[in-house]
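User: Hi! I have a protein structure encoded as tokens and I'd like to know what sequence might fold into it. I'm fairly new to this, so please keep things simple.
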């Protein structure tokens, strides 16, 4: 295989985001759907009122049934297709927003706020300090 000069591999840093999956609870025009959509920041498309959309940093985006609405690290919102969401995100396994005096500490990097499962998960997936202690 040919190697292209200067091309390196990258992976996303593990940031924690909040997300809600949008769905037509009682149909596309149902009262519950409308209430839910508005509660997560969606608006009706002005030209075609059957469409829901959300304002993102890059403008308005259509939101379909089943799309996830993500709130990013800076509070920005954007929609994400369910298949993409599934390959990109997984549950953060934290029981609460951690404070320094709460939860279990990671003995390797000092990160905090884990429950037992969360710490195990952190060690095997995210902890660079822990990874540094093992020959991989
Ligand atoms: Zn750690």
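Assistant: Happy to help. Inverse folding works backwards from shape to sequence: for each of the 136 positions I chose a residue that suits the local structure. Here it is:
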């Amino acid at each position: 295989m040919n190697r292209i000069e200067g091309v390196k591999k990258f992976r996303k840093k593990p940031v924690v985001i909040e997300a809600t999956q949008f769905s037509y609870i009682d149909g596309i025009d149902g009262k519950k759907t409308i209430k839910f959509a508005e509660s997560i920041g969606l608006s009706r498309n002005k030209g075609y009122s059957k469409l829901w959309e959300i304002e993102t940093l890059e403008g308005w985006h259509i939101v379909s049934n089943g799309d996830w609405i993500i709130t990013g690290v800076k509070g920005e919102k954007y929609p994400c297709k369910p298949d993409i969401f599934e390959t990109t995100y997984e549950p953060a396994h934290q029981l609460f927003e951690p404070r320094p005096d709460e939860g279990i500490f990671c003995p390797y990097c000092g990160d905090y706020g884990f429950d037992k499962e969360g710490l195990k998960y952190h060690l095997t997936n995210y902890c660079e300090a822990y990874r540094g202690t093992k020959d991989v």
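A useful reference point when you look it over: Residues 106, 108-109, 111, 122, 127, 129-130 surround zinc ion (CB under 6 Å). Feel free to ask if any position seems puzzling.
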